[in-house]
Structures are given as C-alpha cells and as structure tokens.
Write a structure and sequence with these properties.
The protein has about 200 residues and is mainly α. The protein is built from 8 helices and no strands. α1 runs antiparallel to α3. The protein is globular.
C-alpha cells in the first residue's frame, strides 16, 4: 500500500507541476489576483519544493526492500550519476536569474518574458533541468537500490514525455518560430553533439 501511495503522490506532484505552469491557468489566475500575481512564482516554488521533499521523505520512511546488492560498483555509479546530474542542473541555471526563477524577486512572468536561452547546457539539450534530475534519480537508485528509489525513477521517466510536451507547447506560445527551430536543432534530453 505504501508504494501505491508513493506513486499517487508523484502523480499529484507531476500533475500539479504541469497544471500550475500552464499559461491559460496563469492568465486566469492573474485576472483574479491582480497585482498580487507577482508573488505567484514564489508560492509555486515553495509549494513545489515542500511537496517534492515530502515525497522523498515519505519514500525514505517506507521499509527498505532491496532490489540489488549494494557493492562498491553500485555506490560508485550512484555518486557518479548524481554528480553529473548536479553539474548539469547547476550549469543549466547559470544563465538565469535565480531570484527571478525561484520567485524571490516579485514579477509578472506573463509580462516579463524570460530570455530565450540557447547557450551553456541549453546548447546541447533543450531540457537540461530534466536531464540533470534524471541522472540524480538514477544515481540515487544505484546508491541505495531499493524499491522506493526505483519508483521515484520510473515515475520521473513516465512523466518526462508528458512534462516536455506541455512545457514545449508553452515555450512555442512564448517564443514562436525561434523555439520551433531550436526544437529541430537540439535534442530534448540526450545530447547528440558535444561541441556547441
């Protein structure tokens, strides 16, 4: 039952993540909140962070059911994948204002269109945040190869095509032909070239 709860929590998290980032919902919300909408990004970031951490803590509270033997190799792979994932996450955020991204700077993200970034990690993959998170979850599974860690990873893998579809639908609305061209030239998650 605990594993079904874990899957259910991830479904709610990913579903809310997609819904709350939807442009139609944001326009509707701004029409209701007025100037207070400028704090929406901060509330969204706090909600997502707390919910994400709650799911990880809940997963960690489930009695461990090991799927693989823990060895020096699995531990090494865990550290390696998690380190690469973390590096990708950090590099992908390098060209963004963290205060704006997290919502610490009050702003209307429907009026202040973020810069269209194609440099850094975004020159190799369109969604480096997702790629980094995928590697971190993979590393977490190898480091502690339990059923809960595998569920975390599988739920993310199932969500990625859905999340990317809706994210790119929004980005095409924002950037139009520039993003469509970018989509043709740069892969979503796995780089096909290493010199941008």
């Amino acid at each position: 039952m605990a594993y079904f709860n874990l899957i259910f929590l991830w479904a709610i998290f990913y579903g809310s993540h997609t819904f709350l980032a939807n442009l139609d919902f944001k326009y509707w919300l701004r029409s209701k909140l007025g100037n207070a909408y400028k704090r929406y990004r901060l509330v969204y970031s706090l909600f997502s962070t707390v919910f994400f951490l709650f799911i990880l803590i809940y997963g960690g509270s489930i009695e461990k059911s090991y799927l693989l033997a823990t060895t020096d190799l699995t531990t090494y792979l865990g550290y390696m994948f998690a380190a690469f994932g973390t590096i990708i996450l950090v590099k992908s955020l390098k060209h963004f204002s963290l205060s704006t991204f997290a919502g610490f700077r009050a702003h209307d993200d429907l009026e202040e269109q973020p810069e269209f970034v194609r440099k850094g990690a975004h020159a190799y993959v369109r969604h480096p945040l997702y790629a980094g998170l995928l590697l971190i979850f993979l590393g977490f599974f190898f480091f502690d190869p339990i059923l809960a860690a595998l569920i975390h990873l599988i739920c993310l893998i199932i969500y990625l095509p859905i999340g990317i579809y809706f994210e790119e639908k929004k980005l095409i609305q924002l950037y139009g032909k520039r993003y469509i061209q970018y989509k043709k030239e740069v892969p979503a998650l796995f780089p096909t070239k290493f010199r941008a």
